[in-house]
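Incident log, structure service

09:12 report received: a user says their structure output differs between two submissions of the same chain.
09:20 pulled the input from the user's history:
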Amino acid sequence: MDDLEILSEYSLYLKEKKEEGKKVIGFIAHDNIPEELIDAAGFIPLRMIFAGNDDLMNASHDYLPPSTCAFAQSSIGLFSLKPSQFNFLDLLDYFIVSNHCVSDICASEIISKYFNIPRLNFYISYTKNDNSLKYFKLELIDLKQQLEKIRGSEIPSKDLRESILKYNKFKKRLLEINNLYMKGSKKLKIIQKALLFGPDFIQDLEQIIQEYKEKSPINQINSKDLVLTGCSIFINDYLIDLIEEAGGNVVFLDTWIGNHYSSQIIDDKLIDAKKDPLNLIIKRFHDNIYGDHSVPNYLEFKISQIEKIYHDYKLKTGKKLGVINHIIKFCDHISIMSAHLKNQLQEKGIRVLNLERDYSRANRGQLSTRIEAFMEML
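09:34 re-ran on a clean worker, output below:
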């Protein structure tokens, strides 16, 4: 399963949904967009989880300066150049403008304005207190009303509750996938594909989980095992290949494509038919301690989590884990914490590589050298 295969399958999937009369709602990928609300409205959430290259980044410079997050640049470049494998982006009906970071806001506004995709607004607080939770509920109500206006009727609480249960089950399966021992590139492709297809992919996930549970491959991959944290590896990016070529294997994805997303599970016992389902989404927002910029003491949570993964893995396998902190160039809320993250983990005996890069093909050799040198250290 390669990137072109995933994109081709997804293109066919979206065309079928459009033929069924579904609307497609796009957004820059991050972990607080309430996809259950989009699903309950009868629409298809489409996450921008596509990486780039020089061409896509350069195509964005008419809209943003080169000193902008390379992922945001590439997202704009997709609409500007329209590569054939991304033709399904023409099926977008609306685009959500949100504020995961400054680049998210800028890129989303540009995509909506200059490529004529009607915008929906959804903004979140960067704090977690009573006032920010009240604000988050107001934003949820507003987004619900925007979606109801498009569909021409109210979204029943029953439908939203069913969507929450459906996505809960989906995230539980993704969490199991992230904890399976397999080749990192295979795990990444499974999760990437799942995030595009959503709960419609759940039977495939269950089949994969069953197949791997019947094996015991923990010592069958001769590699130096790693946790990937920081920025995600998106579709069409070559970084996972460089890691494996250097003898590494990413066994745990501590990124938005991985634990940040799949750990956001609501306790099924709380999903009561008499309660407002919006309050469940608010609770999830409150409990999201792995969001990479919106939680007080976020870095302490991250360090504690990586330390636990490291010790649990060592106890289970006898092997030590290394950590690659993946930093997309000009991603400020990852890069600004990178030195502290590295120092704190290395004081605990955990080796860390802060790997900052953009999607330029010219950097591939330099990246390979740095990753190979880190592998030698482990």
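09:41 both user submissions now match this output. Likely a transient worker issue. Closing.
09:42 reviewer note: The longest strand covers residues 224-230. The mean pLDDT is 93.
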